[in-house]
Input
Amino acid sequence: MSNPLKTRLALRSAVIILSLLVILGVLIVAASVLFLTWMETRDQQRQLEGLMSTVENTAQVAAFLEDEQLANEIVVGLMANRTVLGVAITSGEHVIAVNGPNLAGLSASALAQQYPDTLNSRLL
Output
């Protein structure tokens, strides 16, 4: 018996068209996922920058005065936001307040070295 894909033009054309549509669909889904990931990352970055600008002056005062109570209030407030994974406020080599996974117990220089490109680096 012969292969119907070789002998029937309509069936062969349908298989080719469906294959192309599946490939095109996969490419569109992949592009959409990448675009949505980029958009969400950009939105979260803007949200974090807004949070930073809101608390930056107060955090600088807390760091200058080495006021642990004020620094802890800032950290607790920032950690209440789901986007924030960790916060560290330092003054020189002294860590005033810290909260987040893998942050506890690190020195100020270790925090700055481990997280050099984060928004928090402006306060470290």
Observations:
- The first strand starts at residue 87 and ends at 91.
- The chain has a mean pLDDT of 86.
- The radius of gyration is 26 Å.
